[in-house]
Design a protein that fits this description.
By secondary structure, the protein is mainly alpha-helical. The chain has 20 helices and five strands. The protein has a five-stranded parallel β-sheet, sandwiched between helices.
Length: 468
């Protein structure tokens, strides 16, 4: 029988899956396989929150496959060795997969494709994760972009959304030895994930539900509501996109069909995701080092584990920052506006290196994506791709007053402050007696003085690089 392997990675869906569709079109029988090989993604192996999501997403995919007469063949070990074993066991003639774009994964996949072809196995890969391949967009001088607006202008002009491929109704499958998903040990031994179940539905059905909720309830007001953390004004599709439970092209197609405002604003956010992958592909060192080498001279403060720990626990004494960090710990997610504020506080007010924050987010976010995480932290720290002619420092108090004016977001996640009036909740340290009664800490740092220190550091960078 003409058999092929379909190697699932971060494309955990059956609908609109190019590798699966191509394999089914060319072969009588397929073997859906997932190989758990986190060591191959080092130094950015999946963190705890990502592993939680992966456990549930794999179970969802397996259920969907079984409903179609198939099953997910789970393996644990080196990807090439496990694929070779399955090729021998099933007599497969080909291996199909959808591409991933992190530096370690690209290098691995190149080696695997060549190794399979060397022994006569056809190996084919497809784009299922991006609107456009990172190498397909270039500047007029045929180089990579470093600024988002011209990049987006180029991508938007060529973007032609197309309808998604349907999910197969039946999947003829060859059997092979397999491990169980539970055996991968993805769930935490100490159950810190109690709030995740209430917040999320991993899997393709969950992605579909999130998309429909967004289109039905939020897309019309997206341009204005997206910055208000107390509202359900964002799509919350980011973890579904990261694990490939839905494709960005599917979202772009649905947006094109919708008759409402907010479409271009949200499509632009998908463009930021594309831009992040563009940057990581062309500048793979940026996951560990400054994209802008001028900032190699920035005078970061000495490591301050106690301060960082207070930031991680949401005990900084700055309400909007603490609300964001507590939302992150409870749900594995944080509103994007608040992500910028907590990142600015760590890198500008505490002057801790952006990698300190990037690694914490990596372990605690269910949507931890190397391209997005890297670009987001470098953008806020000022060390990455940014057209701004100044050193951006967010004031968490004025930002809180602007985007959470009645304090609803702060009250939800910092309940100690729930009785404080809307005028005072953004700066409760003005009433120390009330703070002592509610058990909330005074600010761990002076915002104005720390802003001045951050700007002095920026002046030192400019001086060293001859910009003044």
């Amino acid at each position: 029988m003409n058999t092929a392997l379909v190697w699932f990675r971060r494309d955990l869906r059956l609908a609109d899956n190019p590798a699966l569709s191509a394999a089914l079109a060319a072969h009588e029988c397929i073997v859906p396989v997932y190989v758990h090989a986190p060591h191959e993604e080092a130094p950015w192996s999946p963190g705890g929150a990502s592993r939680w999501w992966l456990h549930h997403s794999l179970n969802s995919l397996d259920r969907d496959l079984r409903a179609r007469g198939s099953a997910l063949h789970v393996q644990d070990g080196d990807s090439l060795a496990k694929l070779r074993d399955l090729v021998v066991a099933t007599g497969a003639r080909a291996v199909y997969w959808n591409r991933v774009y992190e530096p370690a994964a690209i290098a691995r996949d190149v080696d695997i494709k060549q190794a399979l072809r060397d022994v006569g196995i056809d190996a084919k890969s497809f784009n299922a994760a991006l609107l456009c391949e990172p190498w397909e967009i270039a500047t007029a001088s045929n180089g990579p972009y470093r600024v988002f607006t011209p990049y987006w202008r180029n991508l938007r002009a060529r973007l032609q959304p197309h309808p998604p491929l349907p999910a197969p109704k039946r999947i003829p499958t060859a059997s092979a030895a397999t491990s169980t998903i539970d055996a991968l040990g993805l769930l935490p031994r100490i159950r810190w994930d109690a709030g995740f179940d209430a917040a999320w539905q991993p899997g393709e059905a969950g992605a579909e539900a999130a998309l429909q909720r967004f289109l039905d309830e939020a897309i019309g007001d997206y341009a204005s509501a997206r910055d208000v953390p107390s509202l359900a004004g964002t799509s919350r599709l980011s973890p579904h996109l990261h694990f490939g439970e839905i494709a960005p092209m599917r979202i772009a197609w649905e947006l094109e069909q919708a008759r409402c405002g907010g479409k271009e604003s949200f499509l632009r956010e998908l463009g930021w995701r594309e831009f992040s992958h563009h940057l990581l592909f062309h500048f793979p060192h940026s996951a560990e080092r400054n994209l802008n080498p001028a900032f190699d001279a920035y005078p970061w403060a000495p490591a301050a584990p106690r301060q960082v720990r207070r930031w991680q626990r949401g005990r900084t004494g700055i309400p909007i920052v603490d609300a964001g960090m507590r939302e992150l710990w409870a749900t594995g997610w944080m509103h994007n506006r608040v992500r910028m504020l907590v990142a600015s506080f760590l890198t500008k007010n505490l002057r801790q290196h952006w990698l300190v924050g990037a690694r914490w987010f990596w372990d605690t976010l269910v949507d931890a994506d190397l391209a997005n995480n890297t670009q987001g932290w470098q953008w806020t720290a000022g060390t990455g791709a940014d057209a701004a002619p100044y050193f951006r420092i967010f004031n968490p108090v004025t930002q809180s007053e602007r985007f959470d004016p009645d304090g609803a977001y702060v009250r939800r996640w910092v309940p100690e402050l729930s009785a404080i009036d809307a005028r005072s909740i953004h700066r409760p340290w003005t009433d120390p007696a009330t703070l002592r009664r509610c058990g909330y800490p005074m600010p761990m740092i002076d915002l104005a003085a720390s802003r001045g220190a951050a700007l002095a550091g920026y002046d030192a960078v400019r001086h060293k690089n001859g910009d003044d």
